[in-house]
Target: Putative exonuclease GOR-like protein
Amino acid sequence: MGVNSYMTADRNIWKSSKFCADCRLSVGNMTETGAPLDSAGAAARRRRPRDRRRPPPSPPTPSTPQRISTEQLAEALRPHLLSPKRMWAMGYPLEIDSTSSKAVVYINPPPRPRPLQLTTWDVNAPEFVPGGSQSDSGRGSLGSTPRSDSDEEADAVEHLCVRCDKMFRMTREGEYLVEETCSYHWGRVCGSDSRYTCCNMPLGSKGCSAARFHVWSGTRPGMNGPLEGYVRARSPRGGVYALDAEMCYTTAGLELASIAVIAADGRLVYKSLVKPSSPVVDHNTRFSGIRPRDLARATKTLRDVQNDILGFVGNDTILIGHALDNDLRALKLLHSAVVDTCALYPHSRGFPLRRSLRALSEELLGRSVQRGSAGHSPLEDARAAMDLVLLKVHEERASRARLSNQLPILQPYDPLVSSA
Ligand SMILES: [Zn+2]
Ligand SMILES: [Zn+2]
Model:
């Protein structure tokens, strides 16, 4: 069995992502010589008496070279770049015009079933809510519903809690008008009987977790914008990178708290903690992996990180990620050359449903990510996204090679030979 080792110098990444050259099925963890790393295989090798009559196994014959340069990888990814229309539908920030750094974002209504709310979304709402320019912080939020008796009440905006689906109200300055416990399920709704993965209770049951405040995403379903504070690369720099960001809930919605960027060979290119600009309401540690003490030692602001990123990301650089729209919104980066593993490996029931990075990584790479209570690691998630993309490229190249080998060899027709 030949083993194709492809595209990377980082063997730690690839030890679990090598594939049988014949059947293209994952053959589990392997060493560089193609030997399985799993304990059962190791035990079998230990039990097997050594046969001295047999010659030592020859090293595996290198199969078709699979290593490709960053330029070749960029070329192979070109058909997978998201179109502006697709980016729009997926919630990517798009520029309003090429001269400004303002963005607009369209957020699809959540696909999961939600309990009935007192406030419903107005499907006839105008595309842009009056009020002019606003930031992604949600101040002047499109979801705002000023109503009231006092000045404070009149200035209130209403947000949807992304954990418990309740509406709650804040001042435009980010103060809660009513302190109300958020009772929620942190798990997803799964299975034919729609139960939460956190506690196995049915959809609509009382939350199994509680937090002091409700939290919101910083955007609302429908059109958001114009949003300020966005940046973009202006000149070409080439390259292919995978990026993952982790966010915390602040009074202004989800804000960037940590980011990691890796190159195609798995090399860490950039990593930083980020100080959110608004007061943190919930560190979201279960998912972000960010603890209060992490942010206490963060020194960089969003603006610092944007400048750092634009130091090596050009307008032609291909950025890879899983649900990268969330990361680019948090980073406030306008970028058009993106490959998203959500689109590369679509959900069986179609868009806008998305497969999780964890499920894709387990199924296709044979390794676990986002396990344990420590939360997500942006580095681990960026590597998983990069590996999923490299796997797709590898499979496409292998498929093309297989097809070309299967083509029948056509001989020139010679009636003299045929009639002989
Ligand atoms: Zn639960
Ligand atoms: Zn809530």
Notes: Residues 102-228 form one domain.
